[in-house]
Amino acid sequence: MSSKRATSLKDVADAAGVSVATVSRLLNGSLQLPPETKERIDKAIRELRYEPNPHARRLSRGRSETIGLVVPDIANPFFATLVAAVEQEADKRGLALSLHATLNRPGREISYVTGLARNHVDGLIFVTNHPDDGELAAVINQAGKVVIVDEDVPNAIVPKLFADNEEGGYLAGRHLADHGHRHIVYIGGPQEMISTRRRFLGLERAFMERGEPFQVTRYEGSFTVEFGRQAARRFIDEGKQATGIFASSDEIAIGLIEVLLAEGVSVPGEVSVIGFDDVGPLHLFAPPLTAIRQPVRALGERALALLLETNWQEPETLRSEELLPVEIVVRNSVAPPSKQ
User: Fold this and answer.
1) What DSSP state is assigned to residue 144?
2) Number of H helices, E strands in the chain
3) Which of 7, 134, 247, 331 lies deepest, with the highest CB count within 10 Å?
4) How far are the Cα atoms of 80, 85, 288, 306, 325 from residue 165, in angstroms, in the given order?
């Protein structure tokens, strides 16, 4: 069985009676030719059925037209939605997407950042979900065009894009306060994370504005289903003193509700619950869960726009932080406390 050799750039050049460099520059848009010369090249391309190598063309222009995206986990609905939004926005702009999942391991993150920087991507959208000891920030600062999304990497001097976490905490706190709750359990991720701190600050601010006595008990660990389960067991073991719970991620809320329902704790009869993210199927819970909704798709779309629009030669633009608004989605998991 014989196979036909693909037509090369040299074949086209020979047929048109010009140099390979002339054909290459014409295809790259960097050369204006007399009409008759251009017509000879176009004719040779048609007759030989030459198909330009898009990767080679991109490299010759000094760009790849490919964007890198690094996320902790594509199985998590939050990150899956973010990936889908970036992919769709890249497609609209005629860009390819190089996707990498780190399993939220620092070593894999550093490997992908350094590797993508060498592999001809035009920029990198980076998402982490754990604290940094400074090593990751140093690698990001060396990598070039990087936009950090969702969680901060302190000391990384690049544009950053977050949801308005403090406003989200404030909306949750105000909703609980409006229903008469004064003793709250806040279940957050690692205390070093910007989302954990800001959501708590917003929650606390909402109660402080009331000018009435209140108490917030903090359980902080990780944004996982298992930590939600652990928090629920701790809440029960401590005698269920609080009347409201703010679970600061979908994953935490899922684990929390699972244990509360299994132990016969009524929501919102015995304890009211508010979640955060609203990417998972919280409306299918029993009862449907009130939550702070992050603009996940907007984060993905804006992250790509920010990567492309940033003036990377202007130092001040690299220190920017942009916040996208959140909203509260009221369902049936919050009610006035049955005990005061």
Assistant:
1) S
2) 12, 12
3) 247
4) 20, 20, 22, 19, 9
